[in-house]
Amino acid sequence: MKKQSRTPFDLEKEQYVASPQTKKADMEDLKATEINNIFLEATIYKKAAAELVATFILVFAGCGAIMVDTRDKSLNSVGVSAVFGLVIMALVYTVGHVSGAHINPAVSIAFASVGKLSLQELPVYIISQIVGATAAAAALNVIITKVSINAAVNIPPGNPWASLVVEIIITFMLCFVIFGTATDPKAASGMVGIAAGGIVACNGLYAGALSGCSMNPARSLGPALIALNFKGLWVYILGPIFGGVCGAWFYKGIYMEE
To answer: What is the set of domains in the chain, with CATH numbers?
Structure first.
């Protein structure tokens, strides 16, 4: 039978146990240290939780705004765009230091493509984001009455290929801005939340009528899963992923110093 290697903590624990002077309080402190070490090492779980909760909040607020406007005509496209932009800005400052505040599979894939996110973490990010978005859509479907979750489902308003091109361009813009403010050491400190929220709101003001302005596969997939409406969903998966990767590589190749 293969002998298991011992960690420095195991050796320290054996010394405590072997010592006749060991006190109950010392053992309790040692146990607390062991628990703290486990949680400090489990950073991927913290990141997953941050991405899940942040994506839930994004979809709940943004898609909730769409549904409320559909029902009450109280926000219009400007109000809906503002909600998406403001919630992104708030979330970047809230969980950016925990997970990077991707809140978007296209952004996570873009980060992974240039080596800013490990391939081991990438599936965890994407799954967390999709789960958060789907849970938010399910909650909205129950909470908001007299309007279907279908109101928040992204469907190409015209030619799906035209919507695909729009999604590629606006997600390129999003990731270009994110990389310029979040990953470049020469960028002004603390501006990523304002910049990311601003470009999301800006794109929403004009691209909503052109493509539905998703820029985020999880935001589109969550409501689609709850509504079981997958018409044109491929546009909002392929477009943002391709556009996001192009935006990341363009900024990295042109502006970032190795």
So the answer is: 43-254 (1.20.1080.10)
Q: Alpha-carbon torsion 207, 70, 196, 221, what sign? A: negative
170-224 pLDDT per residue, tens: 999 999 999 999 888 887 778 899 999 999 999 999 999 999 999 999 999 999 9
What is the reported pTM?
Answer: 0.82
